[in-house]
Amino acid sequence: MLPRLRVGRRWLNLIWMLPAVAVLFAAVIGACIWLRTVPSVEGFIQQYPGSVPNDAPEGFPWWLRWQHALNAIFLVPIARAGIQILAGRPRVYWRAPATPGRDWLRIQRAMPAEGGWPVRDDAVALHPLVGLPGPKRTQGLARAWHLGITLLWVANGVLFYILIFSTGQWMRLVPLSWDVFPNALSAAIQYGSLNFPTQDSWVAYNGLQMLTYFITVFVAAPLAVITGVMHSPRIAKRTAASRFANIEVVRSVHLLTLGYFIVFTIAHVSLVLVTGAFENLNHITIGTRDSGPAGFILFAISVVVGVVVWALLSPLTTKYPDAVQKGSARLLGPLNKLY
Question: What is the mean pLDDT of residues 207-235?
Fold first, then answer.
């Protein structure tokens, strides 16, 4: 069962978005290549080359590299378990109560007109390489993964905030001048034309990188945590009458935030690889500025290990459900009472 998005009164199978995105991507590249031939646009790029100098310490300290790796490790089970939780109630609404026929996204067939469809029967199974663990009505195990690993992710994030603001690394991420916006536009045109902007992320990010990382770190991540906490039955009961904070709005925003992280991760990894894989990977793995193969080798090994772990998570969860539940309960401790 593939996700379907409501567009007006019609439902669009999201599988068809793949060729649509490919066509749009090609159109954007063509438009940016043409823009680079316009003298005024080229003059704009010369005036705003994309780089945004700052006074942050150069390089990537060891703690930042470790936290970056942990962040990637944590986000995989969080995302997979989150998708599994969605499969347990596979219709997403913007209004409460959840009136049949008003969903804006679903991974189920249309609700029958006569109604009387039990919620329990609405749950769908996912492929075990997608959901965690995958089978129908395994949301309890999915929540154990989702909540337990999210707690580790939040702890890692809090430590990250403390360290960046105590070391000056925050200046890499926080725009301090309005020039970041024209530089971001310039960088976007250069990326789109496949004639990438000159950059040295060891020293500073360009405008587009800075804005994207700022949104990811200071907007998307806190929003994911806040909307996640608001799923608590105790909190949801108190906000049930709210127009903008009821559980349906919270679920929608939480899902869109998850979608943002997935798109960001794909774009981020792709650009790291195509804009100088060896040097970029050395920055974030071994903390050097050279273009040797060490960082790429570590990255390749981590990908292989990650694929193996990805494949094993679902069958191990199904085989040892009690261990998963107990491990999550110990991690969460008193926070279990919220859920």
Answer: 94
Residues 67/217, Cβ–Cβ less than 8 Å: no
Please state whether beta strands 105-106 and 10-13 pair in parallel, antiparallel, or not at all (unpaired).
Answer: unpaired
CB atoms within 10 A of CB 152: 15
Residue range(s) defining the domain that contains residue 259: 4-338
| CB 144, CB 327: distance < 8 Å | yes
* DSSP H or E run through 76: helix 62-88
Nearest to 45 by CA among 207, 204, 165: 207
- Quickly count: other Cβ atoms within 10 Å of residue 172's Cβ: 23
- Distance (Å, whole) CA 82 – CA 254: 10
> What is the total count of domains within the chain?
1
What the block records as the tokens of 69 is 């790796």
**Whole-angstrom distance, CA of residue 275 vs CA of residue 199:** 9
Cis peptide before 133 (omega within 30 of 0): yes
Which residues partner with 61 through β-bridges? none
CB neighbours (10 Å) of residue 270?
Answer: 10
Show the CA angle centred on residue 185, arms to residues 183 and 186, nearest 5°: 60
Cβ-based burial of 193 (10 A; exposed 0-12, middle 13-18, buried ≥19) = buried
Find out whether 53 and 211 touch, Cβ atoms under 8 Å: no
Report the alpha-carbon distance of residue 185 to residue 206 in Å, rounded: 10
Distance, CA of 72 to CA of 305 (rounded, Å): 13
pTM: 0.91
pLDDT for 148-184, tens place per residue?
Answer: 999 999 999 999 999 999 999 999 999 999 999 999 9
Q: Between the CA of residue 119 and those of 89, 215, 234, 235, 331, what are the distances in Å?
A: 7, 36, 21, 22, 30
Measured CA distances, 303 to 67, 106, 172, 298 (Å): 17, 31, 27, 9
Quick: pLDDT tens for 315-331.
999 999 999 999 999 98
